[in-house]
Amino acid sequence: MPATKGVAFVNGKAFVEANYGLAAWHNVLAKLARDDRDIVESASAVGWYDLMVFARMLRAIDQVCGVGDLSLLPKIGISDVERDFNRTIRIIVRILSPDQIFKVSTRLWGQFQNAGVWNHRTASQGKGMDSTLAGWGADRALCLELTGYVKRLLELTGARDVTVLHDQCRGLGHANCVFNVRWR
What we know:
It contains eight helices and six strands; from the N terminus they run E-H-H-H-E-H-H-H-H-E-E-H-E-E. With 184 residues, the protein is of the alpha+beta class. The longest helix has 17 residues, at 140-156.
């Protein structure tokens, strides 16, 4: 079973409360099935939890705080980076190039996810990376949140005009997820 660290749940709750208020968070919880709600409410940042519960939480957040089309989810990913990287870590990230961030993130992935293998290939034209993620959760909500995370993380390195395209997604029936990332 693919699992994620509980910090994902903690960050999701913080995003909702900071941007929409405590009442909105209670509405998100009300959208979840009882078993999922129990997991979300009791999650600790360092515990391991079913990845699909996180996907369902993201969908509930989008229904309550967004318009129900998953377009809010990249903003949650951006917010997660802001919460995950304190001032000291941001200084370290700033000295890395975007290419180096991909190498580092591949090693760090396993600290937060117990499934999924990354393969990065430098883009043929311009600055960028074409990255394939195999064997992770098959839910579009997870990947859209991840696009925001990748975008903001690269911006912390000094990359500008970052775009993250994600047309091939396991959540849409593809074998793997492919992220085409470009920057200046």
